[in-house]
């Protein structure tokens, strides 16, 4: 698999003009033109932001194809597997590449790690309204203008400021998307709860151990970060928090329905460390398992 250490190398490999800045690459894709990179899987040392209305082709991030039925944005992080193969667009699109080194010494170095959509690895790309598209294009055009000017001491600051604005707007737009696509969100929440119920009923607590966010997300065919963000929007709790609540509900039932010790119940629930189970129970319920059983039975 090809790994690009520099943006110049990526441009050269794909027949693009050399980048004006070795740490930033801009590729504007014209209407009904292909916009492919390498036509094979690759990794790189840089972030990428893409906007496109896909007519045909494949865009894959990690192991999952992006959902590009409408105008949408994609976000890629360094050293993640990417594939853009035979991509043909309905309208103009763009790709922004920026090497991770350009963030050194800037607030965005830390801020970018807070944008969980870089970790979605999911078929849920960001779908934009016409008004949102206009905002993103205006920011891209500002980046392009600055990129093509003679660079000076302010160029890097200005470009990174506009990139940061794109990321902040994207965070806002994703929250809107969670709200607007309530049918999908509701189905995921229901399937999440059903998954946990079947996990217990099928005896996986003993054979596999505690259910993890990664396991449940894989069964739902979405990423752990996307699942947590979606559940947070719908329920106010992350996926891990909801798993803990579910397990403690099971624990309360076991404490009252059997004569098993706290340690035995912990092991039956998949906890290898009974003291950790007791701490988690107290955190979620407010009292220790033994005290809970004593108070309810008395």
From TrEMBL:
| Coiled coil regions, renumbered to chain | none
- Name of this chain's protein: Helix-turn-helix transcriptional regulator
- InterPro entries from the entry? Homeodomain-like_sf, HTH_AraC, Tscrpt_reg_AraC-type_HTH
Q: What Pfam families does the record tag this protein with?
A: HTH_18
* Entry keywords, A to Z: DNA-binding, Transcription, Transcription regulation
Q: Which organism is it from?
A: Chryseolinea lacunae
Domain HTH araC/xylS-type span(s) in chain numbering: 194-295
